[in-house]
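fyi for ur records
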Amino acid sequence: MKLARILMTSAALLSLSFGAVQAKDVKKIGLAVANLQANFFNQIKQAVEAEAKTRGITVVTVDAKGDGPTQVNQIQDLLTQNIDALIYIPAGAAAATVPVKLAKAAGVPVINIDRNANGAPGDTFLATDSVASANAVCKHILEKAGGKGKMVMIHGQKGTTPEVDRTKGCMEAVKAYPDVKIVAEQWSNLWSQDEGFQIMQNMLQANPDISIVFAQADGLALGAAQAIKVAKPTQTITLGGFDGDTAALEALKNGVFDVTATQQTQKMGREAVDSAVKIVAGEKVPAVQLLDATLTTKDNVDGFIANHP
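which gave:
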């Protein structure tokens, strides 16, 4: 009996020791970001690095600058650096599956943020519920425009998860307004302000009586607002964005555009690190983790400027 108790105690201690080792197993995380020119991705990067620092974890960050093949090469390199987990924001839809497959072949868990890889999802996917949030943004601008008028949509990068979901959410809202006609749509590559400006200029030239614009990112919305200002249309144009970028929130406060959906970027970064630690420790995490975004107008923007979620 005494020997049995000793064996049981030893087994328990081994079990506790093994659990403690597992819980501290993450020493280095690879962070592959789509494009650090975008404020949204920069906020996630900062949150990941801050959370990792509090846990004593090293983060190696690479920036694909919007190029899929570059990102594949970067992740191949990360996998040679003994990373324990990969936090991955795909740079595009075309090659998004390749890094996931490479990481899984190397036994490295993958935490996707914002964009998933069709056919090769990571171990978990963290994102905003873009369908619901885009629906809310579009409903707001449609109602503000009086439920009628000519509408255009400036899309994000074609085929990426947020582009697909934001299109779906907005189109669901448009269905309820039969007097709204979508007269033009165009896709961007980098979700950038310069693209928003150029696209909006072209749209206004082709359809000078546009009265409603949904830009699928705040960068695109700021560019569109600039093009509208230059064009000086006689009609009021209602403009909605998406993301809650820091510069865009200030612009929203100043009336540059009308509404956005503020994403919980800081929380995404923290949760990504937490998910990496849990997965490496053998814990189960949900396959999909969707966060709410908040419809943001001049009425409630100050709170997000002071403290971004």
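The domain at 28-127+265-291 is CATH 3.40.50.2300 (Rossmann fold). thats all i got for now
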